[in-house]
């Protein structure tokens, strides 16, 4: 059996041989990071969080969600958040829109990126979006069609596939099934597909299996050009899994400042991988993110104090502690 040499070498060797060393981070803190909170975060605080994140060098920020206030009360002011954000050159403010109704509102608001959702698990799909997996895919298809037909300046369309590793109700999901559904999303013409480890049980081996199946289904270039990984850190495996994804060729990763997050429909799922921790690791490996880590740590400190929750970024807490120990 012949093994492709990029898969057999470490990340450092890949970079030395000229492989792309730029990584794009998708900051999901303002949406995925806040959606599970019971106390309502003021709209002004959400807007300030997004704008502070943009000032760190992050170029894609999931700023809001256009979902039913009945199901996700925290996101009820999504339209107001988007209306109040100041445009910033080179920054895309993404918005989650689970259906055609949300997509129309995103178009009205001038969103530059719209995030659609599907699931690899029947049970999760029914609880999260009240439809089967097949019906969810048709919703994505219809919403994408609406968005791409909106004109030459149509928003970028990103689809996120929940339960790409396991489901909180159905358990582990077969890698071949995940690849099949992700392949359908790619075939629809979604600009990017994010693979979400919704419950955070993923390990490097599990991620390698999914990406291997996807490589077989969609070809080797798809990993670098059209896929992203969204790792929750419930079991402490997010950074290790992302390192494996890097070695496999992925160059887009979701993360949440201060490790905020959790899914209302995934009991026990904790926050996303902390953006600070991910940036620290990537910079240590010689990757370029365009993000100022010190400024990012400031943002994590700001938002956790504003909403009175623990800062779950180990890097953020270490840098803040080091600052306090330093003499003037």
UniProtKB/TrEMBL annotation:
<dbReference type="Pfam" id="PF00682">
    <property type="entry name" value="HMGL-like"/>
</dbReference>
<comment type="pathway">
    <text>Metabolic intermediate metabolism; (S)-3-hydroxy-3-methylglutaryl-CoA degradation; acetoacetate from (S)-3-hydroxy-3-methylglutaryl-CoA: step 1/1.</text>
</comment>
<dbReference type="InterPro" id="IPR013785">
    <property type="entry name" value="Aldolase_TIM"/>
</dbReference>
<comment type="similarity">
    <text>Belongs to the HMG-CoA lyase family.</text>
</comment>
<dbReference type="InterPro" id="IPR000138">
    <property type="entry name" value="HMG_CoA_lyase_AS"/>
</dbReference>
<dbReference type="GO" id="GO:0006552">
    <property type="term" value="P:L-leucine catabolic process"/>
</dbReference>
<feature type="signal peptide">
    <location>
        <begin position="1"/>
        <end position="20"/>
    </location>
</feature>
<protein>
    <recommendedName>
        <fullName>hydroxymethylglutaryl-CoA lyase</fullName>
        <ecNumber>4.1.3.4</ecNumber>
    </recommendedName>
</protein>
<dbReference type="InterPro" id="IPR000891">
    <property type="entry name" value="PYR_CT"/>
</dbReference>
<dbReference type="GO" id="GO:0004419">
    <property type="term" value="F:hydroxymethylglutaryl-CoA lyase activity"/>
</dbReference>
<dbReference type="InterPro" id="IPR043594">
    <property type="entry name" value="HMGL"/>
</dbReference>
<feature type="domain" description="Pyruvate carboxyltransferase">
    <location>
        <begin position="23"/>
        <end position="297"/>
    </location>
</feature>
<keyword id="KW-0479">Metal-binding</keyword>
<dbReference type="GO" id="GO:0046951">
    <property type="term" value="P:ketone body biosynthetic process"/>
</dbReference>
<dbReference type="GO" id="GO:0046872">
    <property type="term" value="F:metal ion binding"/>
</dbReference>
<keyword id="KW-0732">Signal</keyword>
<keyword id="KW-0456">Lyase</keyword>
């Amino acid at each position: 059996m012949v093994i492709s040499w990029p898969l057999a070498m470490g990340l450092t060797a890949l970079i030395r041989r000229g492989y792309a060393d730029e990584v794009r981070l998708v900051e999901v803190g303002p949406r995925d990071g806040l959606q599970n909170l019971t106390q309502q975060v003021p709209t002004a605080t959400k807007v300030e969080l997004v704008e502070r994140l943009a000032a760190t060098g992050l170029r894609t920020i999931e700023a809001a969600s256009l979902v039913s206030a009945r199901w996700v009360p925290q996101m009820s002011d999504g339209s107001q958040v988007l209306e109040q954000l100041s445009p910033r050159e080179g920054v895309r403010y993404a918005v989650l829109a689970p259906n055609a109704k949300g997509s129309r509102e995103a178009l009205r608001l001038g969103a530059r990126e719209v995030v659609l959702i599907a699931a690899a698990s029947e049970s999760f799909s029914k609880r999260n979006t009240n439809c089967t997996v097949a019906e969810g895919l048709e919703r994505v298809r219809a919403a994408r069609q609406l968005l791409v037909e909106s004109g030459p300046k149509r928003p970028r369309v990103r689809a996120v596939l929940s339960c790409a590793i396991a489901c909180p109700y159905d358990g582990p999901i077969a890698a071949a099934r995940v690849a099949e559904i992700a392949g359908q999303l790619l075939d629809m013409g979604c600009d990017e597909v994010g693979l979400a480890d919704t419950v955070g049980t993923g390990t490097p081996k599990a991620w390698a299996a999914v990406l291997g199946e996807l490589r077989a289904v969609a070809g080797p270039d798809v990993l670098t050009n059209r896929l992203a990984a969204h790792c929750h850190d419930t079991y402490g495996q997010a950074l290790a899994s992302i390192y494996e994804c890097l070695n496999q060729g992925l160059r887009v990763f979701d993360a949440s400042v201060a490790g905020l997050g959790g899914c209302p429909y995934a009991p026990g799922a904790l926050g996303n991988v902390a953006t600070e921790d991910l940036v620290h690791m990537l910079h240590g490996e010689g990757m370029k993110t365009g993000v100022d880590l010190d400024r990012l740590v400031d943002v994590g400190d700001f938002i956790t104090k504003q909403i009175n929750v623990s800062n779950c970024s180990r890097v953020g807490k270490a840098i803040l502690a080091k600052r306090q120990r330093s003499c003037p």
